[in-house]
Amino acid sequence: MKITLLGSLGNINQHYIPRLIAEGHEVTVISSKADRAAEIEKMGAHAAIGSNRDLEFLINTFKGSDVVYLMVSGGTPTQDMAKDAQILGEIYSQAVKISGVKKVVNLSSVGADVKEAGILYSYHFIEEALNALEGVNVRHIRPVGFYTNLFSELATIKASQTIFEPVAIDTVRAWVYPTDIADVVYESLTQAFTDKSVQYVVSDWVTGDDWIQALRTVGLEVTYQQVAIETVEDTMRKSGFSESNVAGFAQLNRVQQNPEQFYKAIKNSDYHLGEVKVADFAKIFIKKYQNQ
Questions:
Q1: 229 part of a folded domain
Q2: Spatial separation of the C-alpha atoms in residues 10 and 137, rounded to whole Å
Q3: Domain for residue 210, yes or no?
Q4: Where is the NAD(P)-binding domain (predicted)?
Q5: Residue 52 near residue 18, CB atoms below 8 Å
Q6: 100: which DSSP letter?
Q7: pLDDT tens digit string along 13-45?
Q8: What's the CATH number where 13 sits?
C-alpha cells in the first residue's frame, strides 16, 4: 500500500514505520523540518518536507495514497488550541476530499466527545470535519493521558522529592505509552475498516499512590501533594500559556478530579489495553531522572 503519514519521526511514528517498510509498503513521511529528510530516507521512506497547514502541499502529498495518518502538530502554548483545531480540521478534510483519499487514520484524544473535558474537547473539531466526508472511511484513535507527561514532575522531584498534582492521590486515571499507541496506529493503517469509528488506547489504570509505589521500586522516594487548580493555572501563565489554554487545562483538571464521566465511553468500549504498565514506565522515568 501507499501510506502517507503526518508526525515526522515523532515518539509514535518511529515505532511502527520500520514495520511498514519491512512489509513492503511505500511510506511517505511528512515533516516540517528539512534536516529530518536524510533520517527519513535512511529508514527507507520518502520524505515530504512541508507544513501541515499548507493545503496545496497536503493535497499533492496525499494524492495516490491508499491511507493517510493525521495528527495535531505544530501548535504552541501561546496559541488557542480550540481555534487551531478548527483550522486543522478544515485543512485536513479539504486535503482528504480533494486528493481523493478514501481511508484516514486520525490521532485524536480521549475527551474529544466530552464537552466538559476542557482543552481535549478541541479534538472534536477535527473529528467532526473528517466525519462529514462522504465515502471516506475514518478511524479516530483516542489515546488517554501520555505517561511521558509525567516527565514534568522531574524538576520538583529533583528539588523537593515531591509530586504536585491537582488530582487526589486515590483517584484512578488512565495512562498510555507511545509504543502502545503505535501498535494501534499500525493495525489501523494496515487492516481494513469501514465507515467512521473510534478506538481508545490505554496502557494502565493508575492512582497517584500506584505511581508513588512504582517509583519506590526503582529507588525514588517521593511524596504526593495535591494542589489547587488555581496553583496550576498560575504556573501555566508564568510558562507563557495563552489564557484560553490555561482555562482549557484547568477544566480538564476539574473533570479528572471526578473522572467517571470522562472515562465512561472508554469503559463501555472495546478499548485496546496495551503492554506498558506503570511499573514499566517507572523504569523509563528513573533513567530520565538519572540523566538530568
A1: no
A2: 25
A3: no
A4: 7-117
A5: no
A6: T
A7: 999 999 999 999 999 999 999 999 999 999 999
A8: 3.40.50.720
For 204-253, how does the pLDDT look when each residue is reduced to its tens digit (9 = 90+)? Answer: 999 999 999 999 999 999 999 999 999 999 999 998 999 999 999 999 99
CA distance 63 to 95: 9
Q: Count structural domains, the chain.
A: 1
Distance between CA 69 and CA 79 in Å, rounded?
23
| Tens-digit pLDDT profile for residues 162-185 | 999 999 999 999 999 999 999 999
Say if 273 falls within a structural domain: no
For residue 125, pLDDT beyond 80? yes
Q: How confident is the model at residue 107 (pLDDT cuts 50, 70, 90)?
A: very high
Length of the chain: 292
Q: What's the one-letter identity of residue 93?
A: S
> How does strand 173-176 pair with strand 204-206?
antiparallel
Q: Quickly count: other Cβ atoms within 10 Å of residue 118's Cβ.
A: 22
> What cell was used for 288?
530520565
pLDDT of residue 78: 72
d(CA 149, CA 147): 5
Spell out a b/e string for 86-116, using b for 16 or more CB atoms within 10 Å of the CB, else e. Answer: bbbbebbbebbbebebebbbbbbbbbbbbee
Whether 141 contacts 69, CB under 8 Å? no
Q: Which domain holds residue 10?
A: 2-143+178-201
pTM, to two decimals: 0.96
Give me the phi and psi of 259, to 5 degrees please: -85, 15
Backbone angles phi and psi of 144, in degrees to 5: -90, -165
pLDDT band at 73 (very low <50, low <70, confident <90, very high): confident
Give the three cell numbers for residue 258. 471526578
Q: What are phi and psi of 11, to 5 degrees?
A: -75, -5
